[in-house]
Amino acid sequence: MGNISYLLESFIKFITNPIILFNSTWATLLGIIIGALPGLTATMGIALLTGLTFGFPSDLAIVMLICMYVGAIYGGSRSAILINIPGTPANAATTLDGYPLARSGEGAIALSTATFASAIGSFIGVLSIFIFAPLLGQIALKFGSWEFAWLAIFGITICGALTAPKDPLKGWIAGFLGLLLSQIGMETIGSYPRYSLGLLELKGGIALIPALVGVYGIPEILISMRDYGRREIVVNIKGKALPSLRLITKNFVNIIRSGIISVIIGVIPGVGEDVAAWVSYDFAKRASKEPEKFGKGSLEGLIAAETGNNACVGGAIIPVLTLAIPGSAPAAVLLAAMWLHGLRPGPLLAIENPKFIYEAAAMMLFATLLMTLFGLSLIKLFLRVLTIDPAILTPIIFILCVLGVFAINVRLFDIYIMLFLGIIGYFMRIMEYPAAPFVLGFILGPMADENIRRALLLTQGNISPFFTRPICIVLFLLTLAIALYRLTERRKG
Amino acid sequence: MNKADFITGVILCILSTLFIIGALRMPIDPAFGIYGHPGLSPIFFASILFIFSFYLILRSKISLKDIKKDLTFWKRLRGRNDLKNLLITLFFIIIYIFLLRKLPFFILTFFFIFIFSYTFYKKRPLLLFIISLLSTLVIVTIFSKIFLIPMP
Amino acid sequence: MYIILYKYIVYFSKGDDPMKKIFRLFLIFLLFLIPLLAAEWKPIKPITIIVPWSAGGSTDLTTRTLASEMEKYLGQKIVVVNTPGAAGSIGMKNAWDAPHDGYTWAANAVVDVVKYPVLGYFEVTHRDWITFWVIYAPNVICVRPDSKYKSVKDLVEEMKKRPGEVTVATAGVGSAGHLAIELFSIYFNVKYRHVPYAGGYPAVIATVGGETEVVTQLSMEVAEMLRAGKLRALATLSGRSFTISGYGRIPTIRTWYKDYPETGAYFGIMFPKDVPPEVVSTVTKAFVKAAYSDTVKKYAEQNGLIQVCIYGKKAEELNEEIASRVCWLLYDQGIAKISPEKFNIPRKK
Questions:
Q1: Quick one: average pLDDT of A133-138?
Q2: Does A50 touch chain C (CB under 8 A)?
Q3: Domain range enclosing C153
Q4: Counting CB atoms within 10 angstroms of each CB, which of A217, C100, C155, C339 has the fewest?
């Protein structure tokens, strides 16, 4: 009970302190904007804000960084729904159902549902920090190369059939093409530059963000201009701004399931919000009564993806607090920022400063509150984007894509890669190859490559740990079950 | 669509073969032995891609008998106007990327937005002028002053 | 220049003519201005530091801490940009390709800067940069607390008993941890099994989790796990013993092996040698002040690091010494394909 009162006490402290309230407000807003701009990710946003808040007192700075984190992961859903370009990799699954909803004039409901789903997801994250932090933290240490290898294989088995209901073969091709292209560049084990053709730039490989913005952004730009004048502009932006209570209760199981899956994925080091959203989406589709609606504007799918990526934030913060191990890329920067501010999260936190965990939960709760408030109040403004003539909107989106890609590594080469993959992406789009498995391949490729080889290296080719370690058994059975389920499903179909 | 599938299949088969050849030519690092071979994963991914693409070719050929002339792929570009729009857009973005760093970012971006929108919108140039100027100004300010990102 | 000015001032001060008075004032004003013009560099726009590694790593943390202090003395914002890829060579190349006007710096560890040319990544050698080293991070040999290795001797014996089977986690080929264990294996003439990870922290976590037996990464990467009792330090490979607050003293390997060649990593900032001279002098001043600031000291103390302040001639000597050791080691082990001779790097006796 003492813990709850401490949580509430910190929470009230945040709300009533005008300095914290003011600074967190702009941090959240900036987070939403960074998230919504294609290419600019939560990781970048936190790194940026770390620089800006260097001189601030540490508790204020950390609260702002958490606001930025939550805001950016949420903000990415705005552009995913409105212009079919995910703002951050975490929101790629949101485009599948969000954009069809927006095109069919239900943009308002899509945006507000996504907001609520994100809020509930964050809240699940807060709860898991509050209740399970010490318990879940231990999972992070249980993940060795073998477990990561299974996780990558598991990801690959869901990636193909995920978004190509009409023609799974094309989904698989897109997925494996992504996996293959992700192998370009210097690999982790022996630092050998694969397929670099002697170019230094190619040694660095193809980064995720140029690939993401390339295959989502450029085809969208080309198609919206190709169809210029034929595609009608959505003028009617009215509609209910709040999702009905029935929608929430109907999706109760969906929300809880996505939340739990994503918190666990968040805890696992190095696997972040993007994977969490995909896995939640896949499970929701599998469990759904109307799986045929997925990909055509299903609110269920939208809720699963958005609950997933925001719940993952809480999960990713847990190992930061309990073990000083970041659960995802943005969490790694958050951890670094805590270090810079002289905070020592990690195993000693429970002894030295046990209240900090509850304070962090309160920070998350506070960030969630701000995100929800701004999210809902900005819906009307965001919807106006749909009414802008594409002739004016498209060039601006293109500039934002270019700058977003440039900002990640400050390399012109990334912009060329974006253009190149964008043109490939256009052909993929018109020939109905889904972009999602392609991007997922980029996320999973390096992970699979590095961990499978390292696992073999550790045992000199003995594969028994793949089937004897406890978490491995679970992941193996899960992968097998999904693969078999796929096969029987196809036989039926 | 099948014709397109056939061509894609062939291209992907060649691509994956090239990747496999490249992978086989990679050296084995003596420190790690065969399990650390850099080509291991690319060979695996490329082989599966090859199998899938080969299946794509087979599948398209079988149904090629049924549909002799398959033009759905090009039919998607309904009429010449679509193709024209597409090529203009592509032309603009390639020129823009080509000119990055060769011209000052602000001027380049302003002209890009203005010319792009005027080519398609075709009316109210003054309004477009103001919009381009304002949006360039806002973008440059936000990125360089708030996000502190060096401009290309 | 000063003398001429002084003469004019004396000459003009003789008269009471108002024109002369004004002129005199003007000349005195000039007198004050000259040192400013000659030696001071006033940055007029933000300075960019390119960190060629991901945000949150050792180089990134060190650079951000140092930059926050240097900002105060330079009177300009310093922007830290992360450009990871190809073992840091892409970021270094970006920094080199930017105008050499003092507004773009790079940040890196000395072991990385010297190895790029022999690995064929990037032709610019350590001699083309002016370097400022602020942090020294010693390598620490760590094992799990329940490990059977109680001392360096145990470890060496086990490596002799099972050649090539004791697993050692590092941050990858050519990383500080890898170079340290390579040197270790040459010194004791033993074989180990190298297990590379995507960074220092993942390598440490793998050892904590029990996937690998030993980790040889830098002190800052193991400090937190040592404090928590999740790792145990056998020795530091640096020449001197040092203390990690909250853990205790880590003995140097020289306690037992007197002539062990020390390893460790120096972190700091650098810019091309041909920047305007006033930039060098101004930055040096700001660097020295920042390096001795409380912020940097506190940062070093908390992370199990040693604060240093090496620049100018001393830094050049240090770079040469490390270059000859690291480059030849990489070349002899067959990791580097280009001979250090090509870059006139002599072999150290």
A1: 71
A2: yes
A3: 140-255
A4: C339
Pick from B26, B28, B32 the residue to mutate for testing the C interface (most C CBs within 10 Å).
B32
Question: Does the pLDDT of residue A246 top 90, yes or no?
Answer: no
- Mean pLDDT score across all residues of chain A: 84
Residue A383's nearest CA partner among A26, A52, A106 is A106
Q: Is residue C237 part of a domain?
A: yes
- pLDDT at C116 > cutoff 50: yes
Is B56 in Cβ contact with A169 (below 8 Å)? yes
**CA A9 and chain centroid, separation:** 31
Q: How far apart are CA C216 and CA C178, in angstroms?
A: 7
Residues 6+ apart with CB under 8 A from A245: none
Contact C209 A326 (CB under 8 A): no
Question: What mean pLDDT do residues A83-94 have?
Answer: 88
Answer whether residue C165 is part of any domain.
yes
A304-339 burial string, b = 16+ CB within 10 Å, else e? bbbbbbbbbbbbbbbbbbbbbbbbbbbbbbbbbbbb
CB contact under 8 A, B31 and C194: yes
Per residue in C167-202, pLDDT (tens digit) is: 999 988 888 899 899 889 989 999 999 999 888 888
Confidence of residue A48 (pLDDT cuts 50, 70, 90): confident
Report the residue of chain C nearest A457, measured CA to CA: C195
Residue type, C20: K
Lookup: tokens for A83: 């212009």
C53 lies within 8 A of chain A by CB: no
- The answer to whether residues A225 and A402 touch, using CB atoms and an 8 Å cutoff, is no
Distance from C55 to chain A by nearest Cα, in Å? 6
A118-127, A405-414, B139-148, C114-123, range with greatest mean pLDDT? A118-127
User: B66: distance to nearest CA of chain C, Å?
Assistant: 50
Predicted-assembly ipTM surpassing the 0.95 threshold? no
Contacts of A450 in chain C (CB under 8 A): 198
| Number of cross-chain residue pairs from A and B with Cβ atoms under 8 Å apart | 165
Asked if B30 and C334 come within 8 Å (Cβ–Cβ), the reply is yes
Q: A27 touching C, CB under 8 A?
A: no
Both C243 and C289 in one domain: the answer is: no
